[in-house]
Structure to design on (121 residues):
């Protein structure tokens, strides 16, 4: 089940920019554009740069390392729309920015064998 997680106080993200936050073991980039918040997986799918550190223009963020551009609205890679990075719903509750993540897949006995069987440890 997905749920909303507290990320930061309103005001922690300047208008027209993004900021990266560690939340529940993930890095999320939160953007404030024209008074509306957006959230993306902060790791660039190319080589892992923090997208939130990139230049933002017209609802697109340019990766600071190699300038791949992603839609802040839905994570689409604007130079190849077949590829996306994850985007997340955002809300503000009592002055706190919250982001909704999908539920993580629970491990079960039918999944991959434990590392002790495959990692040589
Ligand atoms: S790491 Fe983002 S474009 Fe290369």
């Amino acid at each position: 089940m997905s749920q909303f997680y507290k990320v930061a106080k309103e005001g922690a993200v300047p208008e027209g920019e993004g900021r990266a936050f560690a939340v529940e073991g993930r890095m999320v980039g939160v953007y404030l554009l024209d008074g509306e918040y957006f959230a993306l997986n902060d790791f660039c799918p190319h080589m892992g740069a923090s997208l939130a550190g990139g230049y933002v223009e017209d609802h697109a963020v340019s990766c600071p390392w190699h300038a791949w551009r992603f839609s802040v609205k839905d994570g689409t890679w604007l130079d190849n729309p077949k590829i996306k990075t994850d985007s997340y719903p955002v809300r503000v509750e009592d002055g706190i920015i919250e982001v909704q993540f999908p539920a993580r897949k629970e491990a079960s006995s039918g999944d991959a064998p434990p590392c002790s069987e495959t990692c040589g440890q």
Q: What stands out?
A: The beta strands are 3-9, 17-23, 26-33, 36-41, 55-57, 60-62, 69-71, 87-88, 90-93, 96-101.
